[in-house]
Each structure stands twice: as C-alpha cells, then as structure tokens.
Fold:
Amino acid sequence: MQEITVVGGGFAGLTAAITAAESGARVALYEAHHTLGGRARTAEGPYRTNEGPHALYNRGPHWTWLKQRGLLGPMAALPPLEGARFRFRRGGALRRTPPLALLRIARRRAEDAPVDTDFMTWATGVAGESGARAAAHFMGVALFHHDPGSLSAAFVQERLRRTTALPPEAHYPRGGWGQVIERMAARAWDLGVRIETTSRVDALPERHGPVIVATSLDAARRLIGDDTLRWPSGRTTLVDLALRARHGDPFVVSDLDAPGWLERFTAQDPSLAPKGQSLIQGQLPTAPDESRADGVARAEALLDLGFPGWRERTVWRREALANGRTGAVDLPGTTWRDRPAIDRGDGVYLAGDQVAAPGLLCEVAFNSGIEAVSLALRDIKYAGTRTPLDLKQS
Ligand SMILES: Cc1cc2nc3c(=O)[nH]c(=O)nc-3n(C[C@H](O)[C@H](O)[C@H](O)COP(=O)(O)OP(=O)(O)OC[C@H]3O[C@@H](n4cnc5c(N)ncnc54)[C@H](O)[C@@H]3O)c2cc1C
Structure:
C-alpha cells in the first residue's frame, strides 16, 4: 500500500493525517518544530497564550469534524453578554455600544455584498460613510488587516456576519488551542500515524505516494520551488499582558477609529494566568509602512482608555509582529477559488490557511486538509493500486 506523506503538523497537517489514516491509509507526518501545533500552539509556563487572540467559530465545518471525533474538549463559557463589558472606542472615547449604522450593515446578508467591489464602497451605500468605516475597523478582529475596507465586500461581509452573530460563534478551548492540538495528536497516534517532530523537510521526499504540503504558504513556496504560491494576508502587532486583576476591567475593547482589538482572555478562562492576574491579548493591524512600535503605541492608547492603571498593574508583557501569518484575505474581484490550488499535480497537494478552500481563518486549513486527502486517495486509486478505502471495504 502506498504511504501518504504529510509535511507540517499544524491544524492542516493533523487534519489531513487523521482523515487519511481513518480511511485506512498509511501516513507519515513530518514536523520541523519539536512540538506539533504550528500557529495553534499554546505557550508553556504561567501565561497560556496563543499566538495572538484566537477563537474557534462554532458554525464552521471544522467544529463538526472535531466534535464528531470528541476532539473539541471543554470550552470556556463566554461571560454572559449583558455583563460582558464590551467597549468600543469611537471618536476617541470609550463607549458601551457600537453605532447603529454598523449594526445595520451587519444585518445585511453576505450574499448581498459583491465580490468585485471593496467593502468600504459597498457598506457606505448601505449605511453611510462613518458606519462603513466603523464596520471596516471592527473587522480588524477577524481579518488582521490594516485596511479591511479595501478588501472584497463579499469576503468581509461573510466574516462580519459571523463575528456579530448571536448567540456568539466565538468559542475558546479551555487551556488554549494547544489542548485541541494535543487531542488531535493523540488521535493520530491511535490511528497509527507515524509522527516525526524536529524533522524539517528540505526537499519533497522521494515519492512512495502522495505528498501533502501542510506548511504556511511561504514555506510551501520554498519547499515546492513554485514562486507563484502567494496570496495576501494580514500584518498585525501582538501585545500580550498580564495585569493584576481589577474588578470592572472590560472583557473586550474594540477600536472603531482604527482596526484594533484587546481581549481579556481570563474573563472566560481563568486557568490561563496565575490567580489574581488577568491575561490580556491585543492585536493591532499594522500597515506595511508602519512599524511594530506604531502598533504597540496604538495598543497602549487603547489600554489607557480601557484598563485604568494598567502600567502600574503590569506583571508580564510580550510583543511581536505577525506578518502574513493570519490566513488569507481576498481583494476585490477574487474569492477563495482564486487562491493557490490544492492539487499541484504529480501527486503533490497543498493544505493550509492561504489556499483554495472556503472558511474563516483556520477553517481554511481544516477544509483544505480534508480536500487534499480526498484527492490523494483518488490518486492512489488511479495509479492502479487498490486504495486504502477499497482494502477496508473488501
Ligand atoms: C495572531 C493570530 C491570530 C489568529 N487568530 C485566529 C482565530 O481567532 N481564529 C482562527 O480560526 N484562526 C486564527 N488564526 C489563524 C490560525 O492560527 C491558523 O489558520 C492555523 O493555525 C493555521 O494552521 P496550518 O496548519 O495551516 O499552519 P501552521 O500552524 O503554520 O502549521 C504549519 C506547520 O508546518 C511546519 N513546517 C513548516 N515548514 C516545514 C518543513 N519544511 N518541514 C516540516 N515542517 C514544516 C511548521 O513548523 C508548522 O508547525 C490566527 C493566527 C495568528 C497568527
């Protein structure tokens, strides 16, 4: 029987490996890092941070896929909405509600928004310029892009609908995303997937069967040697803080004057920081001509408004710039179908969050991982071998 090789052990690679092994295929997975998880890793130590604010949205297909296999695990309950202390910066001041025009735009169906027009133009026609601007800035939360209004209206509106849905779609695996990764890794082991960590693949392996390249698109471009493997993504400054807890701190501060988001993760999951401390993660979309320091300055301005006395209360702090690591964004005139195709020919397949598969953020990685496996199994069949599925069925 041919073996399926998976390169990369993040969500995409683990999804592909599990799906292929469940179909009866022999699978080997190679991961460069010493642990699995990629961008879904959760930091060790007292502050259980993910790489920036991370939420799983429960209407995506990945939710069902994980749930059916018992891999979701316990979810931290969101603080009740009425007491959740959402705050919005508007006109330089902190407010309790977003503008009504933003809500008017959010009510429009995603299908109403055109692919070929930018979001700002379309949303201005729906509810006026200031509402459109506020909606675009709000979408920094799920787009990680410095100018969400310049992206395809259809792309942004689909995400605006999902991030403003009630009850909220955003869910938080208790203990961080790393817990889901651990359960996925255990499932892969149980199915007999051969997992080799600290194993960077520098060239495509001598082919024994299909290869699924489940790395970031940048790494795939280098590995496959195909310079066309490119697609726009976000660029965002990440600020993580542990503060001495203070009664009355907000749960979320969303910047509607410019894209930016602060979230107090211990509001839903106190296990993420030592007792008596609040873990706050911020992401401030940062333009190509801006520096990390610019992003940090905006984070600090938001903290000044939302978290009184935060400087004196800080016990731990970390900053980073995530460039091209937050998944695909679609420009006007493009949809996910225009992104780099999963099937690269010659038994090589791509999976990851910047390839031609639908979904929001990491859902693209799950969907492409599953699609890559179904194409790989078809490949084995057409190569004249009995597929693992045939063997299972006979
Ligand atoms: C700041 C930030 C916030 C985010 N927030 C959210 C969110 O709220 N919700 C959401 O759904 N998604 C979010 N995401 C996106 C989500 O993290 C990713 O979509 C997802 O983790 C991508 O998984 P992946 O498997 O495609 O890629 P990765 O996680 O990047 O996995 C690729 C793996 O391949 C390995 N690798 C690379 N090159 C090689 C090689 N040559 N040989 C072997 N191994 C190799 C890497 O070490 C890595 O482990 C966020 C991302 C960031 C950065």
User: Anything to note?
Assistant: The CA atoms of residues 76 and 174 lie 5 Å apart. DSSP finds 13 helices and 15 strands in the chain. Residues 7-13, 30-33, 38-40, 51-55, 200-201, 214-216, 219, 223, 238, 283, 322, 325-327, 352-353, 361-362, 365 surround flavin-adenine dinucleotide (CB under 6 Å). Confidence is low (pLDDT under 50) at residues 385-394.
